[in-house]
Amino acid sequence: MEQEQKPQERSFINELVPDWRPTREQVLWAVRIVIVIAVVLGLLTLIGLPFGITLWAWVKLLIVPAVLAAGGLWFNRQQRDREMEIAEQRGQDEALQAYLDGMSQLLTDKDQPLHQTPPGDILRMVAQARTLTVLRRLDGERKGRVLQFLHESRLVSKVHGVLDLKGADLSGIDLLGTHVDMADLPEDLAWGVWETMMW
Question: CB–CB of 149/172 below 8 Å?
């Protein structure tokens, strides 16, 4: 029994603390940085000897600017990452809004609403292509909103479904806060949603 638990414990520990091994490039950069620091400290020692300035005095003198520089670099990186995240969120919001606008036009078209198109019609193909494309771009929460929209507009349902979402990217879909009746979805779509939510 104990032998069975040890591999499980090891895999759990490996998930918590992944085995990080530096790449060759990372090792080379670390070596370069250490060599540069050693050379700079050696030069400072040679420069300071005639004036009685020790290596420790140089280190104390340079530690504050080094900490400030490192803090500035860290702050700039955090700021850049945050800006990239905001831009990504904005891009997803715009993609979702453009999708909803386009689908709303297809649904409310006066000449031929999407619901009244026959199977194989070009409008259905366009709507399906738009849906499959936007699902690949969105995160889980927005995928949930798309599915809720499709469900509420009766574009995907067991009885009179207009769109076939076979092969749709539903990875990470989040239906929390949505009102999607899984029993009303086509079986393959419901299974796809369940599978992604379980993993």
Answer: no
